[in-house]
């Protein structure tokens, strides 16, 4: 027999022993992996689940791949057992044994039924259709088993990862959703009556549908990591879950605001009554002051003072009714709007009072300036000056008579001030008196 054949040179005893040791280690590793896959929690869940969509399609193919894996493994085990039996016949293997071992260990010596391969429909196999059997070398068989194991494990790990992550989180969010819904119902936030109630109803529908889809089709919620070839390389897709969790958090904040309204409603309504009452009193004071101004001041325009807006009082009564009926979701926006309007109304009333009493303030300023210059003149001993006396009396009659013409009175005070400055400028200095300086005088 020739020293070579299609499988290459005939192996010697050392090469055979090394090959058997390597193949034995590979056999043990493959067996460990297959048993781990068989006991994987994700595989057991997939076997008992009612699957749909992409998960159903991939699990059908994966089940066939796992079946083919065991077929390959059994064939591999039989071939390895045969090789070991041949090697154990003699301590020193004969040439015929070595030729047979070389063919078994290196050649296409493993036969797999073609029907099994066709049934598995594994993408890594290239069996010709209609073939009764396929022959593989042990090395090729190991490569095929590794490929099938990687694809099967990838599918099982992905489904298990989604099932381990999403359903539990959805259940926790659903429990929080129920608590929030009960709280919302207690404060009057209901579907069809408040946007937050509609949001709660939508979130409930979405979470129910999401859980059903995750349980029946977990691979639809698996996001593979780009560039990763390792089995199970990726993570669960939580996009829908995260969106609904954020929406529930928004609803929770809105309900907290409504609860705050329920706790502070009475205090806020009392404050609103007080603000509106002060605005009414200020407007009443402005109307009274306007009558006084019209009676005491002539030749001036006094703005009209409007009455208190009845619409605010009506809205305040509505707010009190909402509080009495515990309609907190309606009371909350109404109170916010009313508080702003009440503050604006009080500011408007104060501005009206200031505008109405402005002529009286001008008259008071003119009176003060006139008396200040009279006192200044008296300090210099010039109070009896006839010009000053005449101009002072004229200005005083205008300022202390009713109605007072402010424009004429202002001119009269100015003439008295000018006369006082002229007299003080020509008066002789006496010891202890400083130089007159009108810039430092009252009303300058």
Report on this structure:
The protein has 444 residues and is mainly alpha-helical. 72% of the residues lie in helices and 5% in strands. It has twelve helices and eight strands. Strands 1-2 form a two-stranded antiparallel sheet. The chain has a two-stranded antiparallel sheet with strand order 3-4. A two-stranded antiparallel ribbon has the order 5-6. Strand 1 (4-5) and strand 2 (8-9) form a beta hairpin. Helix 10 packs parallel to helix 12. Mean pLDDT is 81; it is low at 123-128 and 429-444.
Can you summarize this structure?
Helices cover 72% and strands 5% of the residues. The chain is mainly alpha-helical and 444 residues long.
Fold topology:
Layout: E1 4-5, E2 8-9, H1 13-38, H2 41-48, H3 53-87, H4 95-106, E3 110-113, H5 114-120, E4 133-136, H6 138-186, H7 195-216, E5 222-224, E6 234-236, H8 239-296, E7 297-298, H9 310-324, H10 328-379, H11 386-399, E8 404-405, H12 406-426
Parallel strand pairs: 7-8
Antiparallel strand pairs: 1-2, 3-4, 5-6
Helix pairs in contact: 1-3, 1-4, 1-6, 2-6, 3-4, 3-5, 3-6, 6-7, 6-8, 7-8, 8-9, 8-10, 9-10, 10-11, 10-12, 11-12
Label this structure with key terms.
two-stranded antiparallel sheet, 5% strand, 444 residues
